[in-house]
Amino acid sequence: MRKIVLLMAIFFLVLPFLQAQDLILDSCQQWARQNYPLIKQYDLINKSEKYNLNNASKKYLPQLSLSARATYQSDVTSIEIPEQLQGMFDLEALSKDQYQAQIEVNQLIWDGGLTSSKKKLTKAESQIDRQKVEVELYAINDRVNQLFFGILLLNEQEKQLNLLSEELQRNYEKIGTFVENGVANEADLDALKVEQLNINQQKIQLKTSRKTYLQMLSMLTGVKIDESKNLQKPKVDFLSANDNNRPEIKLFDAQSKSFESQRALLNASNMPFVGAFLQGGYGKPGLNMLKNEFSPFYIGGVSFKWNLSNLYSRSDDLRKIEIGQHSVAVQKETFLFNQSMLTEQQKNEVDKMQQLIADDDEIIRLRENIKKSSEVKVANGTLTVTDLIRDINAESIARQNKAMHEIQLLLSVCNYKYTQGN
């Protein structure tokens, strides 16, 4: 019994820590990726690729065909024998009704690399489909980033509002003492009370916004994220020279490789085919047309086929492939150009945030000095409470600005890394 009580006590002590588990940005991104319905498309692409490759490989399996026919013809082949020789030969006239059933086996020996080229093209097209899915899945990271940092910013704003509320309450109690001593009046307390009510309203708005953001992040990740979860500020390295690893680059490369596979397939389709065949059957007549009876027969040999008509359109087909490759190259160049412009803009945004933060501490220090001076003046009766409230709010706004700039700096760095694919 004592062990059970001890275990229950430990559980209730640990429970608050479990409920307040920290959430990191990387985990949310991974959850969102796995939860997004499009992730199922990977399995469908892999299965489709497997079936297409299997079908291409079956081209080298023996091809079987079975045929049968029964015919009646108006005339048949006959041989006229001179009268003086008729006694020496006994030739039966062929029947006008004839029958034949046969099975044929064809074995491809060489197709000029057509099957191999089809397999390569299938793999190239499947890789394009996979990269298209990857591009869409990568875009989820940006949505997670906006929600995650939006919640962090709301948390910081609420924290500053709590500090402001405490500051107003402290001054409310101080002014209350002044009212009792006849130094201040009830209107001064009312002014402070109005500010406190305004702060409470702002808190309500912040909580509602944060609840909405948490619900959206929960839907995106498929994980229940509520007020008990503490979102941890990501530790990000500041800008460094990184290569562009965006999935769009791999998509362009996969598309270019697909055109190379199309060119190889076009060349292979203009090559001859070499195969072997075997026919076996039973019919009346058989291969001996002069023997008017049912008999088995077979034929075997090697076949050679070369369709030269494909050469008529080969040059145009090659030009179409070259145009497609140039189009992909232009799209890639355009994408990189836009990315370069965006990264420069994001670098400038990071620099701006760093410069703003460098001045925030000094602004806060000065605002705090002004507020303290105002408190002394109010106590001496040389400054109104309204002016004090203005200075208190100014200090709070300075602190909120610093908190906002810090979150915006982190978001700017994450946006830069997202743009670079890192």
Order of helices and strands: HEHHEEHHEHEEHH
C-alpha end-to-end distance: 55 Å
The average pLDDT is: 86
**Number of strand elements:** 6
Biggest pleated sheet: 4 strands, antiparallel
Compute the CA-based radius of gyration.
Answer: 42 Å
Spatial shape: rod-shaped
Percentage of residues in helical conformation: 55-70%
Question: Explain this structure to me?
Answer:
With 422 residues, the chain is an alpha+beta fold. It is built from eight helices and six strands. The strands form two sheets. The chain has a four-stranded antiparallel beta sheet with strand order 2-3-5-6, with no helix packed on it.
Element layout with pairings:
Elements: H1 2-19, E1 22-23, H2 25-35, H3 41-57, E2 63-72, E3 97-110, H4 114-180, H5 186-221, E4 230-231, H6 247-269, E5 273-284, E6 295-305, H7 311-380, H8 385-420
Parallel strand pairs: 1-4
Antiparallel strand pairs: 2-3, 3-5, 5-6
Helix pairs in contact: 2-4, 3-4, 4-5, 4-6, 4-8, 6-7, 7-8
Question: In short, what is this structure?
Answer:
The chain is built from eight helices and six strands. It is α+β, with helices and mostly antiparallel strands and 422 residues long.
Features:
single chain, alpha+beta, two-stranded parallel sheet, 6 strands, rod-shaped
